[in-house]
Give the backbone structure.
Amino acid sequence: MEKKLLTLPEVQTALSLGRSKVYELIGAGELRPVRVGRAVRFPAQEIDAFVERLQAEQGGGAAR
């Protein structure tokens, strides 16, 4: 079974971004974490949607 909720370090690894950049994306509303009690987690589908939005904004192609 694939993980449904990711921790901050897992999101950092998945997106190849640092902690500060992930927090910046949260502040800008581009990543929307959820709370489970006091724990902050990121739905895996939220990370996939973020990447899809980035690709759409850039015309679907990779950076050159």
About this structure: Helices lie at 8-15, 19-27, 44-57. The chain has a mean pLDDT of 92. Residues 12 and 19 are 7 Å apart (CA to CA).
